[in-house]
């Protein structure tokens, strides 16, 4: 059976089991020698009447097929008003298939808007942990939103301490901006060690996701509230661009096979609602998430469609090489037009771009020379300024860009292009630090303070670990940078390193703490 036929059949089975009548019973209750729900549960991509719930069966995560038998397995699921599941509102059955890593994605429909629910899965005599989900407010509602921004969680470089504190926050949503896993081989002398060698095959990626998802703090954060997830580079290969990998010896064909494996494993391990692809290597993940009339999140992919990085993909003096070539793209023409059309037509009070790489430029050199990163938007100046002009025309004063990738916190003004210093400010960029990548970090990155005079749009920088907490109201957006001073040892306390305020239709950001 080819993949398309199998996936079509699987979708039909999923629908059949989700609405099965009472005479359809689970098979005889199979005893599990080991817990099949070692990877926990998650919810994501909420809408006003539905939300995706996820789990993946893996009683022995590092064995072939996660320790499963190779047969398809029936899974029961329940959604309830209460944690004791005495008031169940939706329930059903679905199939976990070996061809999809025994992952389960149920898009639970028929829920009420703007309310919390509890969910769980069962199979045989095994029961999953209980997770929480919530639906978004109904269209037209301006209910305030509290959410966190996370990214970059290198298992080897530190503990996921920030997640231990995140679950104590009152949050409606978590936005994860990529580098959920790292592809590198295990190395000695680190805080923790990756299982196995550098990952390139589907089973390798599955095992790496399993290692990360077994972390107790990450499991608790997923169970805490719904997530909206995108990817960055390390879900496939460091700094890859389209079908160009970091290692020059990998051919286009090899990179396509690697991307196919990585994208399938990403889908298998995330609570996402994305179109089923013709080929996994072409999985489309751009999508919007609305929060009533208050905010619309445009979740972007800045890896799959980009032109190769210029000038050897480093931090280089500009101009150089193809850096100034106007034909080079970062989002790809189709995704860029999708975003601009969305900004034009969407009437939500705040437009939010959930994406990976820093959009505002950062000149690393002091003086007249300009040195910039080729992997960030600054490495694609025409594409960046074209997008910023589009924001200026369609949603000025109500656009917030959320960014990850660089393992540090930044607060930036966004101007209607950076080809001239007098371009007006049209939005704000909040760059969030890593969960653990980069180790303990420091209060300010080396050389940043000296270079800030050459970057007047930059307001603040910090290189500790943590997450960004945001509260969105109809007229005001507030952001707190929550940091821990170490991830090399357990028990670090959380603090608010700085706080910021943006007023709708009044471009610019103000520090409040």
From TrEMBL:
Residues 147-481 form the PhoD-like phosphatase metallophosphatase domain. InterPro entries: Metallo-depent_PP-like (IPR029052), PhoD-like_MPP (IPR018946), PhoD-like_sf (IPR038607), PhoD_N (IPR032093), Phospholipid_Metab_Enz (IPR052900). Transmembrane segments: none annotated. Residues 39-135 form the Phospholipase D N-terminal domain. This is Alkaline phosphatase D family protein. It comes from Gaopeijia maritima. The lineage of its organism: Bacteria, Pseudomonadati, Gemmatimonadota, Longimicrobiia, Gaopeijiales.
